[in-house]
Amino acid sequence: MWRNGTYRQQEGFSVAERTKQRIVVKVGTSTLTHDSGALDLRSMEHLVRTLADLHGMGHEVILVTSGAIAVGTAKLGLSERPRELRMKQAAAAVGQCRMMHIYDKLFSEYNRSVAQILLTGGDVEIPQRAEHLRSTFSALLEMGVIPVVNENDSVSSAEIETGRHKVLGDNDTLSAIVARLCQADLLVLLSDIDGLYDADPHTHPDATLIHQVRDLTPAILEMAGGAGSWRGTGGMATKLSAARIAMGAGCDMVITNGSRTEDLYGIVEGQDIGTRFLAAR
């Protein structure tokens, strides 16, 4: 059944009606770009169309997007991702501009307005700034605007320099913090994997996809592998860290494959797609 906008499956209950939800969708670099780092416009169009449709159904949508450095690297014609911090930050500035231009153009085709929000650790860690940020999200959603969120890599160096930060550090964690800040009902991580498996599916063909997780037990945490493709910084470990934040805030989280953005419809309805981490109420 639905409880406070979020799906809960229990024996003896059925979904009588669809409740409007506040949904945070995080899309990774590997979903948004080709191997060259150039934007995958087909994937972006499919994502935007689905999110615009969910928005039209009455759901509130927040998009957390990665990819600024990879896109900036391609836009600048660089042969590889910059190694020097200042060049990474410059590439992020160029890439973020390019990405928002495309998002604005695509969402406009479906008569949707977007707003850019770039965050640093202090924005969510300092109470006064976090409260202003919460109010901004609230006002945008109230006006029917879709916020597009990313870490402000041009001024925040923690993730791109070290890959670690106590507050943000990766967009999986960032999306969970945004979901907690906005009191979202559902967080969906679109990645290059189908969900959490009981073994590494690349080396264990018989690995089984886990559809529901109710507790982050030591056994579940041990299933986290290393980082994925070179274009992204996140791996399963960061996704489980995001799950801990989301579940603690009363928000369900789903890990699913970003190549099938139409699956978002079924995920919102509570279907067993990907891996759903069920928050306790």
Sequence of strands across the biggest β-sheet: 5-6-4-3-7-9-10-8
State the assembly state of the protein chains: single chain
Query: Secondary-structure element sequence?
Result: EEEHHEHHEHHEHHEEHHEHE
Summarize the main sheet: 8 strands, mixed
Q: What is the share of helical residues?
A: 40-55%
What does this protein look like?
- With 281 residues, this protein is of the alpha/beta class.
- 40% of the residues lie in helices and 16% in strands.
- The protein has eleven helices and ten strands.
- The protein has helices at residues 29-32, 41-56, 68-75, 85-109, 121-125, 127-142, 158-162, 171-181, 218-221, 236-248, 263-268, and strands at residues 2-3, 6-7, 22-27, 60-65, 114-119, 146-151, 186-191, 212-213, 252-257, 275-277.
- The strands form two sheets. Strands 5-6-4-3-7-9-10-8 form an eight-stranded mixed β-sheet, with helices on both faces.
- Helix 3 (68-75) crosses helix 4 (85-109).
- The longest helix is centred in the middle third of the chain and has 25 residues, at 85-109.
- The protein is globular.
